[in-house]
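So, can you check what follows?
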Amino acid sequence: MTTIRMGLALCIAMLAMPALAQDEPQVFNAFAIAMANGTVIKSGDKQATMIGTLKGPMFVETDEGPADAGSMLCGATVHLDQASAKQTGTGVCTFTAQDGATAWGEWECAGYALVGCRGLLKLTGGTGRMAGVTGEGSMVWRPSSHELKKQLDGTTLQNTAGIVIWRDFKLVKGKP
């Protein structure tokens, strides 16, 4: 009888551990294979601004390799100084997990045209199991290919493929 009680107590403790672990901050690395699409407009002398979206599948790094974590969709505004090739960007993102839970975030970054940028992503909340989530971590955008098409109205359509990387991202599950 004592062996059965001890076994039952051990099973209950093991089932409770993941719930306890989820209340603790989680630190992880992740990446997304992304397509950026937008419109580039001349916004000053030797200045350009791109307004667009960035979307693609997202993966979390594990000891067994990348694990599918859902998808991301971000809105972006990137300002480019054409004389120095320096750029700064800001935007918002929605991350959707396989089970439909979502998280929202805001980001900013700085870097160089055609090279990418580095900055910070801060999560601001979510829905489902991500309700009340907050967190932050470094974010890097590295484009790998660019397609530019000049339009009759003077704007340029830009399509870019690349990777978004999040390193040492700290996720905290708060109260919804």
Notes: The mean pLDDT is 86. The domain at 25-173 is CATH 2.40.350.10 (AOC barrel-like). The chain has one domain: 25-173.
